[in-house]
Write a structure and sequence with these properties.
CATH class: Mainly Beta
Shape: globular
Strand content: 35-45%
Oligomer: single chain
Strand order of the largest sheet: 4-5-1-2-3-6
Number of strands: 6
CATH architecture: Roll
Distance between the termini: 27 Å
Helix content: under 10%
CATH topology: 10 Kd Chaperonin, Protein Cpn10, Chain O
Largest sheet: 6 strands, antiparallel
Number of helices: 1
């Protein structure tokens, strides 16, 4: 069973960066671009949100919902493994960008 984040924390399943493939079947991201992007940020799926996440920021409305793809700094939060998958527990304000699940 996955741990449930408390207070202002969120739980994210870390996903591996994917290459972009163009119409011609060519990989658009070069190895150096991929390495540079992975060196500074990670991407994951928001799995769970603590009860007071985002309550003290702006209008208190969550910036992301469970199932959204989120981006965060590479070494943000605490890493855990469960059933062969990697997860990260971090503060709500560690999420730097969101792609809603409807647009993925």
């Amino acid at each position: 069973m996955l741990p449930r984040p408390t207070a202002y924390h969120v739980l994210v399943e870390v996903t591996e960066a994917k290459d972009t493939i163009g119409k011609e079947g060519l990989i658009l991201a070069t190895v150096s671009t991929k390495d540079r992007n992975q060196a500074s940020q990670e991407t994951g799926i928001l799995v769970s949100i603590g009860s007071s996440a985002w309550r003290a920021i702006d209008d208190g409305e969550p910036w992301a919902a469970v199932g959204d793809t989120v981006h965060f700094a590479k070494y943000e939060g605490k890493t855990l493994e469960h059933d062969g998958k990697q997860y990260r527990i971090m503060a709500d304000n560690a999420i730097i960008a969101v792609t809603p699940k409807e647009s993925v």
